[in-house]
């Protein structure tokens, strides 16, 4: 561990925290008595000191507003993580928390691939990951594993493995266990059985407390042993999620906090509030129960269908409700309106990295639907403008939701969304880092070396700073070091025009209008951070100002490198302070010009490509890049010693500079060899700035043929090559059968669950008709397709069947009577319940005999608490007849085989399957014997209302060293054709396609499920809700790219059919429809 705020390579980087460490130690406070005694001491001693300090400032060149010397706060249980109104500090050093949200349970299959995503996060400028744990995945029943829950090693439930991989990647971790997490996942993270309890959820209701206590106790223990104080990466823990105060809510919030502390959690506890952090729910600076240590807010500031201007309320809201905290934007989403409300996630919480798309929200059925965000509304330009605006408002804790969204496989999705949870993130659903990550790397590398920004005060903002009133500027200044940061953007940030301007700044040399010649250019949706009196390197060189942005700086051997960038063709002017005129060397043919006057070296240049400017025989090197080239540069760390050697600023400040590769995962030096590990997306020019002792560079273990360049680097080419996988298209003819034998009146349902309950705790949505409760949660079925068979003795006078079915937004159902199609109902993006009356066709009833009404329902997930307080049942809410007072003699219900309590496939989990016949017999699993099935193509669909199930195989024998992420693509048919399809890969349900609602047509086939050493089993269920049946428009595979990668892939060992055959329903071939 480094000393407080002392970097290994730069004496300059001992900023405010080190200088005032004594102050922090004294005023931290461990008890009320201690705090009172220290307060008295402060009155006696500190007040004269502060007066003297103020007098000194008053006579200095700068005269900022009256600012305070802040004490650092702690939990009183540890000093490892502390905070003041400026920033978080880790081991006494100020650290900008740039966090990426990912949910490990949304990456199905081999959890070893978590490391791939984490390494991409780390390599692209982030230093922290935020993650939700999902109560429902660990507790299918209230007493799972004796109350200790299911955290099976080697599965998506292996929380410990995820934490270990986070630390291995050199990332800090923010744990968010809920118990309610929202996250657009089924039940908002609640297991399905939670809705069955009596009374309200998210209150101090005793029944609810009894429900969440085992889970929160178990997860708190895992968190506690992985805190930073125990050698783990966890630095913050969130309590609840976007949660308002109230007479019954606040005591519940306090109970959650007490559970954390009782189980050994000592790091700061946070909360992410809604509405831009304006309401102050559970802020530590307000009275009441449930107060957290650090208050955060959520923000989704972008327009959902068109560009918006940044919001300017974060700083003022923060100062109003949580002035003792750093400004923390906890859920910063790329998008805007979630459901009907703008959810803003501020201090230490989330800020939007993209946004949610609901069923049918995008009219065009194409891709994942999230292309509207990743390719426009929340692209790299959005990050450039909106995230820099956050920094301008003094945010120093920023978490991007979602950076990697992943997949809602099985029944993970809440009804508000669909299979893809891509979210328009910087790493797409298929693990591919897109152009947005280049922008984040530029910002992250700047933030981690610009510690003066972390103690900077807001000075002012407006259009008067510039010579062009169309440009808006915010000034931040560090009173301790006099470093200043000017944030520029267009006043109308939606504009795609170009504006040029000069900027009036205050420097240690006085007021200056910069550049002295030429202009600063904002090309469309652009933003820039202009530094003033910015000190860097072991030489502690001062950049008086620079109109080109700082990408990063590092010291290699005795040379200080600083990388500057601006748009291609734009001009830059950088001024540096020297006691005497320095030597300046430029490359042959360079247009760089320099002049020296009054201790200021001024360098003028045009950004076009990449070049170096050497000062004082290479003791200082300016690397100048246009932004397109800057997007290809990385600064991988060289690991330091000790437990924290992979953590920048705390364990290491040493790095090399690498230009060219798509991804640089890591760098290490052994003797004369620099070993680079990463991925290539094509044949790539590569350039490296490394210590002089390095004469050889390897890429993924293979030596690169690099030569020394005139600017002191090693340069050459890295070759990718291109794999040639032998894969058969999944539309190749396979086998199929009917997957709905249950509509036959003679089908034997005696082993199904008898639905005979007559009381419910869903008192907000009680049954509207019928004498039996047909809510699936009350019978232990919490997701997947549901089947109901209602038996009745017909009088012959019945004319119609009435049904009220509740399945969630965009759900569907189909009803048959004695095998005869009655009709189908469905919801849409805003309708979760269907009320229908179906006429009974002539000659359908069997008077005086047993008749069977069959309902197949698509379960779209359990609602979050934003809908009916989370108490929203799934199933048949009402049923009956017209024409006669006939009652049902028995209702039988079937969901996934065994329900949640006794699910057969405990490895994949109860949320993976539903109640379709093909699922119950295990036909979705590899190894299922289908030789006696008919041959058929899934494109042929189904000839009438009902379900056919298709199986086929394909090979994916990629050579080692290549990563080729693929998707299954559905070709939509006419939107009037109402059919649904579910996709299964090697036994995992990875997607749900709804032709007449959309928008998703591309479905990731996760690399963690694909088998390279044996054939892959692809299965598709096709359900037509139309009487005339349906056909698919086509199926194909597409690749998201070809990457020469350091990743190694192994076939993930999940149970095949043979391991479950004895427990599955016995398969009987049913001729396909």
Give a written overview of the molecule.
Mean pLDDT is 91; it is low at 1-65 and 335-350. It contains 14 helices and 61 strands. The chain folds into 4 domains: 79-424, TIM Barrel; 447-663, Beta-galactosidase, domain 2 (beta-galactosidase, domain 2, 3-layer Sandwich), CATH 2.102.20.10; 741-894, Jelly Rolls (Sandwich); 916-1045, Jelly Rolls (Sandwich), CATH 2.60.120.260. The protein has 1073 residues and is of the alpha+beta class.
Structural key phrases:
4 domains; eight-stranded parallel beta barrel; Jelly Rolls; Gly_Hdrlase_35_cat; eight-stranded antiparallel beta sheet; single chain; beta-galactosidase, domain 2; alpha+beta; 1073 residues; disordered N terminus; TIM Barrel
What ranges have pLDDT less than 50 throughout 5 or more consecutive residues? Answer: 1-65, 335-350
Main sheet specs: 8 strands, parallel, barrel
- Specify the CATH class of the largest domain: Alpha Beta
Side by side, the strands of the main sheet go 4-5-6-7-8-9-10-14
User: Would you identify the CATH H-level superfamily of the largest domain?
Assistant: Glycosidases
What share of the residues does DSSP label as strand, in percent? 25-35%
The oligomeric status of these chains comes to single chain
